[in-house]
Every structure is written in C-alpha cells, then in structure tokens.
Design goal:
14 helices; mainly alpha
C-alpha cells in the first residue's frame, strides 16, 4: 500500500509540472515544469524503473537546479489582503488541518499495521478535505496553493532525500571506519570525556555538513559511538544512542543544509533574511549540545 502513497505523490507533482508548463507568467516555466515532472516520475514509476535510470533522473534534477532554471510565476491564488481577511474570520480553525496530519499519522501507525508512512499519506489526504470544508474552497485552490508553496521552496524541497541517500552511500563506502581510525589516533585511551565530546560534537558537525541527523548517526555511531563508547567503555547503548541523535539534531538547528527545517520556514514566512531561522537557533543548539555531553558522561557509563 505504501507504493500507492508514492504514486499519489507522483501524480500531484506531475500536476504541478503541467501547471508550470502552462504558466506564461513564469519566464522559467520550462525548467520548473521539467523539474517537477522528472521528480514526479521517480515517485510514480520508481519501483518499475532500473536504478540507473533513476540515477540519471537525479542528475537531471541537479542540473536543472544548479543552472538556475527554476522560478516562480502566477498561481491564480488569493491576494495577501484576502488571506488576512480570511484568517481573521477563520482564526484558530486554520490549525485544524495541520493537527489532522500528526494526530492521524500517530493513530494509524499505533492502531493499525499500516505503518507511519502510509498513515502520513492518508492523514494528508484527510487534512486536505478538512481544509476544503473549513475554508469552503474548491479542490483547484489546493492545487494552486500547493504549487505556489512548492515553487517558493524550490529545489530545497527534495534536499532531505538527497542527503539521506548521501549518508547511506557514505556508510557503504566505509566512511564510519575511516572516522573511527582518525579519532582513535588523536584521542587518549583513558580520557572518557574527550571520547564523549568527540561523539556528540562529531554528530552535530556531521549533521551540519550533511543536513540530516539520521545520515550522520549511521556514520558517526559506527565510527565513534559503538567502538569507542559502547564496546570500548561498556557504555549504555540506549542512553548513548538517544543523546547522540539529539546531538545530531543540535546540528540540524545550525545548518542551511537542513532545508526542510530552516530554509523552508524562512521561504514560507517570506523572511527577508533566509538564514534568520538559523541565526535564532545557534545559541539554543550549542546549549543543548553542551547539556547532552554532560548527561552522557554522567549517566551512560
């Protein structure tokens, strides 16, 4: 059933691409249309295509984004004044569709055997229907607004998938083993605090570089966490794993590579400084990282 969710996502992206091709107010409509068309095809037919074709399509996406062939156009949507007026009428009802998604996902994943991803897909469909009822809008409005939002985000909308794949490749290439060898060369055997700092800070830094704490976790835990802390110091794997992942999330707060957390909100809120979200999160991120180091050193061994 998960494949149906992917196919529905692909159909939506292809609909965005067709709208882009027909948008005469967008000087880059061909680039936009091609980007979302290729991306949509990977969702719609990904399970049926040879892997090398998918790889070529990923390179095509990279080329379109890097060459600056993407832009914004006309979305036949409401004006800012109309949106403010509607928000004033609906008030807190606007949060209902947003709450449907996480609540529905949790309920479906916990009460059925469908899993979280399928729950997310089904909850998203229900949230759209709820939003249409609350706002008394037509389905075409959701399509237009969806395209406006995804064009505002641009290529960064798919950055998290790229980075997750990169982390998988790094792990397959043995980067974790290389990191372990380098760390063991410079860290004294009897200095536990230094090893804890190397693991937590390594998780944060690698996440800053890759933009994905899950990808960093595979590499840094394989290279530092397991050999130096869990096996080398007989540490509590649960505590080390949880605080290590949380340290990675501290890096997420401080990097533009985590586009879905830091760049996307800035684009959606139309902030003048696209890095404003990151600047506001650096100090809390460093504070939490320091607290993680103290907790791991105090309770994991």
């Amino acid at each position: 059933m998960l494949e149906y969710v992917y196919q529905a996502t692909g159909l939506l992206l292809i609909a965005f691409s067709l709208q882009s091709f027909l948008d005469k107010d967008n000087p880059k409509r061909v680039g936009n249309g091609l980007f979302w068309l290729i991306y949509g095809v990977t969702f719609l037919f990904g399970a049926m295509m040879p892997h090398w074709i998918t790889g070529v399509m990923v390179l095509a996406l990279t080329g379109l984004a890097a060459a600056g062939f993407m832009g914004t156009g006309n979305y036949s949507t409401t004006t800012e004044e109309q949106r403010k007026q509607s928000a004033g009428i609906l008030k807190n009802k606007l949060f209902i569709p947003a709450l449907v998604v996480p609540l529905g996902t949790v309920c479906i994943s916990q009460l059925t055997d469908l899993g979280a991803l399928i729950g997310l897909g089904l909850s998203s469909v229900v949230a759209i229907l709820v939003a249409l009822v609350i706002t008394k809008s037509r389905p075409i409005h959701s399509l237009n607004e969806g395209r406006r939002l995804i064009d505002s985000i641009g290529w960064a909308a798919i950055l998290s998938q790229f980075l997750a794949a990169l982390g998988y490749l790094f792990n397959k290439a043995g980067v974790g083993e290389t990191v372990a060898a380098i760390v063991q060369m410079f860290i004294p055997e009897n200095m536990l605090i230094v090893k804890v700092m190397a693991y937590c800070i390594g998780m944060a830094v690698f996440t800053i570089v890759m933009g994905n704490a899950f990808a960093a976790f595979a590499v840094i835990t394989t290279g530092i966490g397991i050999p130096l802390l869990i096996l080398g110091q007989d540490g509590n794997a649960a505590i080390i794993g949880v605080l290590g992942m949380l340290s990675g999330f501290c890096g997420t707060l401080m990097t533009p590579m985590a586009a879905n957390f830091n760049v996307v909100p800035a684009a959606l809120l139309e902030l003048k400084n696209k890095h404003h979200v990151i600047l506001m999160q650096i100090i809390p991120g460093l504070v939490i990282l320091t607290f993680n180091i103290i907790l791991m050193y105090s309770f994991a061994f």
